[in-house]
Amino acid sequence: MLSYRHAFHAGNHADVLKHLVLMLCIEHMNSKDKPYTLVDTHAGAGFYALDAEQAKRTGEYVEGIGRLWGRKDLPPPLVAYVALVRALNGSATLRRYPGSPRIAASLIRDTAQVRDTLRLCELHSTDFALLRRQFKDAGRRISVEQADGFEVLKAALPPPSRRGLVLIDPSYEIKSDYMKVVVAVKDALKRFATGTYLVWHPMLPTIEANQLPEKLKKAGASHWLHATLSVRAPATKGHGMHGSGMFVINPPWTLAAALEECLPFLAAALALDERAGWSVDQFEQGTKKD
Ligand code: SAM
């Protein structure tokens, strides 16, 4: 039984990091004329009203996208990210926040020359219904499935176009998600070694959360980038998330520089205490870059 609803967390610091990286990776995919398939294994509801009960109850977006909204000194990649959210929000006031499906749908291409495809998976019946409603007129290049994203991934790879981007963004409310992510990534690399894989992970004071990045580093990829953004000191009590990370396999060559430009800014802008910080770590077979 799934109880996690992303509506409580939409637009928080973790979404800022995740959606910035997603946008940068899609933009890079768009720099070539060949079509690609984007699979979002854990899509969520797709769009979130920030004045709805769930978002208001936690107010997490206020300390995430809310802190970037009025800034005039954003580094260029963050200007593009906030502009994207602003366009999808549809108003000068921050009222709605787009989830990964809406961000992806707005960036993939549908021209006479190139038609990219987007495959969205969501298991929760309520969020699936919301997602399906949003994309009901989207046509065949965007599909919405009420399905286990880990299972769909097996069938989806390799994509017919042999170009692919995969976002794996579980809530980790079930501990087995940590293990499933590693198994899914290993299997995906066997099926489609050249795909770009984006795995979001929480920074939490638990063994599973701490071990996940190390396990992903050993999953068999010859090139990866690991970026983290923390907004406060790790919790000593309870299970509060103090930050999150994006583990990117086969990252665009432009990603590290863009994140090194944005993450110091984000760590300062979204800080909740003086322990906020960031990191970008990269590995490419034959070289080690920090
Ligand atoms: N990717 C979304 C975004 O960035 O806007 C947020 C996704 S949220 C963190 C995780 C979602 O995965 C939840 O809506 C949850 O219902 C869904 N979920 C959980 N297990 C799943 C599974 N095995 N397959 C597909 N969806 C799942």
Structure report:
The active site is at residue 169. Keywords: Methyltransferase, RNA-binding, rRNA processing, S-adenosyl-L-methionine, Transferase. Belongs to the RlmJ family. Specifically methylates the adenine in position 2030 of 23S rRNA. By secondary structure, the chain is an alpha/beta fold. The protein has one domain: Rossmann fold (3-Layer(aba) Sandwich), CATH 3.40.50.150. 38% of the residues lie in helices and 20% in strands. The protein has helices at 13-29, 53-58, 65-68, 76-89, 100-107, 125-134, 149-156, 176-191, 207-217, 255-269; strands at 37-40, 47-49, 96-98, 117-121, 142-145, 164-168, 196-203, 223-230, 243-249, 277-284, 287-289. It has a nine-stranded mixed sheet with strand order 5-4-1-6-7-9-8-10-11, with helices on both faces. It has a two-stranded antiparallel sheet with strand order 2-3. Strand 4, helix 6 and strand 5 form a beta-alpha-beta unit. Helix 1 (13-29) runs parallel beside helix 5 (100-107) and helix 1 (13-29) runs antiparallel to helix 10 (255-269). The chain is globular. 46% of the residues are buried. Bound molecules: S-adenosylmethionine (SAM). S-adenosylmethionine is lined by residues 2, 4, 6, 18, 41-44, 99-100, 121-124, 127, 148-150, 169-171.
Major sheet: 9 strands, mixed
The CATH topology is Rossmann fold
Distance between the termini: 41 Å
Helix content: 25-40%
Number of helices: 10
Low-confidence stretches: none
Tell me, rounded to a whole number, the average pLDDT: 94
The secondary structure category is alpha/beta
**Which hetero compounds are present in the coordinates?**
S-adenosylmethionine
In CATH's first tier, which class applies?
Answer: Alpha Beta
Per the principal axes of the C-alpha atoms, what is the gross shape? globular
Percent of residues in beta strands? 15-25%
Number of strands: 11
CATH-wise, what's the superfamily?
Answer: Vaccinia Virus protein VP39
CATH architecture: 3-Layer(aba) Sandwich
The sequence of SSEs as H and E is HEEHHHEHEHEHEHEHEEHEE
User: Taking strands numbered 1, 2, ... along the chain, how are they ordered across the largest sheet?
Assistant: 5-4-1-6-7-9-8-10-11
